[in-house]
Amino acid sequence: MVRPVTRHPVLWSIVALFLLAGLIVAWAYAQLSEPLSEAALPQDYQPDIANGKVMYNAGGCISCHRGRGPHVSLPAGGRVLKAGRIEIAPPNITPDPETGIGRWRPIDFLNAMRKGLGPDGTHYIPAFPYTSYAWMTTKDILDLFAYLKTLPAVKNKVPRQEFTLERFALAFWKWLALPKQPFRPVPGRSESWNRGAYLVVGPGHCGECHTPRNGIFLMDRRQWLAGGPHPVEKKATVPSLRNLIGRGRYKSVDDLFNALKYGEALGYEDLSSGGMGEVQENLSKLPDSDIRAIAEYLASLK
Description:
By secondary structure, this protein is mostly helical. 42% of the residues lie in helices and 3% in strands.
């Protein structure tokens, strides 16, 4: 007697769902990994090197990308940074064509800053704070690139670190973490306040350390700049930047301006201690109007 073929509709439904899920994941990954095209570049753009230098100092690029030995004053890379159990060596971003960004095009740099994508489609890990840089205007990003191109080229090959599984997951994490559009001025606020907010949120990437994160390492925007656990040192904490005047940390906007500009040279040792020492040194190189704008914005946070 021939037995009829037994069908398992539930099993086949599960298989079909897994296949469908796989197709959705593959499609989503492809979409999230799609770089910006040349059409994203402004047609009438003219580089402003001076503005690019301002963005360079506001972002503190040298602090992470600092070279070693005779190249300590250039962003030649190789300085090892620790993030928990992981050691990261930021790359060379001088215009050397072999080991730096000398062969990069403007669109490559825009993709790195706005989408966290390398020229070869690599998903950069967010130790490179592109989730903040993505708030920057296209012009400021391109001006920064133009400034980097004026620096001396240093041949310094920094070994590329691979985080294959993590990089795959990053495509989906970035969908949640990246802003949908650059910074827009807040209506009703002064031009100076908005300038300060832009520098803090975007190029200054202050939120990367001073804003606590949730379980999947997204910034908790409800606690913007409220301080929290140190991103590198387990037992350390990062202070809040809110209500600085109300808490008696600074007397006024002028007092905060002096702290940002002069640091420990005028007795503001707390601001110049630890990792903030390099941050303050970089900020001190900004135009006074920008330093005051940052002070005005921070002082407004209650």
